[in-house]
Specification:
- This protein is of the alpha+beta class.
- Strand 2 and strand 3 form a beta hairpin.
- The longest helix is centred in the last third of the chain and has 19 residues.
């Protein structure tokens, strides 16, 4: 399944009452007409203050996971730039059902 030319990405703040390590969850907004698709989460390191994107279904050895960012905005840009790569390499239609 291919993505539309324009992709809407949402960065959603986790509920405060839920235990989590996510700074923001990342979703594609209804990319193929079957509901929103989770892409992963952005995590902020409590020690360094750096931001990391943890892509769903991506092995730790993949270059997509080897990036840290000084700011949340830089991390968002990384997501927007690489979300199509994630979709084509790691999205599996079986998990949409």
């Amino acid at each position: 399944m291919t993505l539309p030319l324009t992709i809407d990405v949402e960065f959603i703040e986790p509920a405060s009452y839920v235990l989590h390590n996510a700074y923001k969850y990342v979703y594609l907004c209804d990319p193929i007409g079957e509901g929103d698709q989770r892409v992963g989460k952005i995590v902020k390191c409590p020690y360094s203050g750096m931001f990391y994107m943890q892509w769903d279904y991506v092995p730790i050895t993949d270059p997509l996971t080897k990036r840290s960012f000084d700011t949340y905005t830089e991390c968002q840009c990384h997501v927007h730039k690489n979300v199509k790569t994630w979709w084509h390499k790691y999205h599996t239609p079986d998990e949409d059902s």
